[in-house]
Design goal:
mainly alpha, Rna Polymerase Sigma Factor, Chain: A, Arc Repressor Mutant, subunit A, 2 domains
Length: 197
C-alpha cells in the first residue's frame, strides 16, 4: 500500500496505517536527522519527535500525495529547533557506526589516480563528508543532504523547504560547487555534476 493510501486510512481512524508509515520511514528520517545531530542518541530523539509531530498533525495534510516532502519538512524543523536549543551548530560525527551512505557523494570528488595509498578509507571519507557539509550554508546543506543522501526529487525538496523548484536546483548547484572547492582544496579533484538539467 502506498503512502497516500496509508495517510488516508490513518486520517480515517486506522492507527495501524500510521505504524506502517513509521516502519517504512523511520530509517530514512533517522539517517537524514543524523546528518544534523551530534550523536546517534540525539538523532534518535529528534526522529521520535518528528514522528510524534507527524502523528499529531497528519490530519492537517491537505494533499496526502505530498506526505514525503511534508514529513521531511517536519524533520528539518525539528533539527533546527534542536540546534537552536543547543545554541551551536551540531553535525553528526560520521564514523563507521553511522553507515556509508555518504560514499557516493565523496566518490564524485575522489582522486582519479587509482593509487591505493591515495584512496580514502571509509572513516576518512566520512570525516571528510562531515567537514565539507559543515562548511556549507544551512540552506545548501539541507538541499544537498536531501538530494544526494536521501534521494529526494527536486519537487519533494522544494515542497519540504517551501521554495520554488528552480531555487532548490540553484541551491544544489551552489552547494555542489562549494563542495567541489572544498574537496579541491583537500586535493580531491573532480568536476561538479550539473543537477540543474
Amino acid at each position: 500500500m502506498n503512502d497516500e493510501n496509508l495517510v488516508s486510512r490513518f486520517v480515517g481512524g486506522d492507527d495501524e496505517a500510521f505504524n506502517t508509515l513509521v516502519h517504512r520511514w523511520h530509517r530514512p528520517v533517522y539517517n537524514f536527522v543524523l546528518r544534523f545531530m551530534s550523536s546517534p542518541d540525539d538523532a534518535q530523539e529528534v526522529t521520535q519527535k518528528t514522528f510524534i509531530k507527524v502523528y499529531q498533525k497528519l490530519h492537517t495534510l491537505e494533499q496526502p500525495s505530498r506526505f514525503t516532502a511534508w514529513m521531511y519538512r517536519i524533520a528539518l524543523n525539528q533539527c533546527r529547533d534542536e540546534m537552536r536549543r543547543n545554541s551551536r551548530s551540531i553535525f553528526t560525527s560520521l564514523d563507521d557506526n553511522h553507515g556509508t551512505d555518504g560514499h557516493a557523494l565523496i566518490d564524485i570528488y575522489q582522486s582519479k589516480t587509482g593509487d591505493p595509498e591515495k584512496q580514502l578509507t571509509d572513516k576518512e571519507r566520512n570525516h571528510l563528508l562531515h567537514y565539507a557539509l559543515s562548511m556549507l550554508p544551512d540552506d545548501q546543506r539541507s538541499v544537498v543532504i536531501m538530494k544526494e543522501l536521501q534521494g529526494l526529487k527536486f519537487t519533494e525538496i522544494a515542497d519540504a523547504l517551501n521554495i520554488p523548484v528552480n531555487t532548490a536546483k540553484t541551491k544544489m548547484y551552489n552547494g555542489l560547487r562549494s563542495l567541489n572547492r572544498i574537496f579541491f582544496e583537500l586535493n580531491l579533484d573532480k568536476e561538479v555534476t550539473d543537477y540543474g538539467n
